[in-house]
Design a protein that fits this description.
211 residues; alpha/beta; 10-stranded mixed β-sheet; 6 helices
Length: 211
């Protein structure tokens, strides 16, 4: 049975987050709240954990996983970002947006899209998740917690734990979060003079980005 960490949404207990980070270090997959919906996360450099993440969601290697970063500076370590892209990123970070960018040299090749060499990145605006990233000391690999065959993300920590008790090391319960996934914007066309492409409209308002 996966563990359940009941944390305060505004002042999460460092002791509990430290225990969660220890599970990540051992290859565990966690369900965590975000500023959009619950997500599954694992250690960025753990291939076996990333493979299990995909199996839980039942998605293949063409499905963009997301790199969760603590801030825009950390995001730029994992992607190739020009000045125009950076200005747009500043408008949407932190926030419920996932940006598709060309993968940087610090991204393992197996995590980027196999043909496009792109990666999804975001900086969440959720205190618990940001504190978890800080305790972890770096980025995490993530995907929206949408069960196989369904279209809506899960939102209740107890229900997540019951459904995925054999696949997850732990669930972090900080109360319900939004039921909408992130808004996804492909910024790669901007690198060749094009316009950003809206892939999915979700929790993040397009007007915030001037789109």
């Amino acid at each position: 049975m996966s563990q359940l960490f009941d944390v305060h949404p505004d002042n999460p207990q460092p002791r509990l987050l430290k225990q969660a980070v220890q599970l990540l270090a051992k290859g565990g997959i966690l369900a965590v709240p975000t500023d959009s919906s619950y997500a599954l996360v694992c250690h960025l450099d753990d291939k076996a954990a990333a493979d299990r993440l995909r199996r839980i969601r039942q998605v293949d290697d063409k499905h963009h996983l997301t790199v969760l970063c603590r801030d825009l500076s950390e995001l730029s370590h994992y992607a190739k970002v020009d000045n125009k892209q950076y200005r747009l990123l500043k408008l949407g970070t932190p926030g419920p947006y996932t940006f598709i960018l060309d993968a940087g040299k610090d991204i393992p090749r197996r995590l980027s899209h196999p043909s496009r060499k792109t990666i999804g990145l975001r900086v969440p605006a959720h205190r618990v998740l940001l504190d978890l990233l800080e305790q972890h000391g770096g980025a995490l690999l993530a995907t929206t917690l949408i069960p196989p065959g369904e279209t809506e993300p899960m939102n209740d920590a107890e229900a997540i734990r019951e459904r995925f008790q054999h696949e997850l090391a732990a669930v972090i319960d900080a109360g319900a979060c939004a039921l909408a996934p992130t808004t996804v914007i492909d910024l790669t066309p901007m690198g060749t003079g094009g316009e950003p492409e809206v892939i999915r409209v979700g929790q993040g308002a397009l007007a915030t980005l001037g789109l």
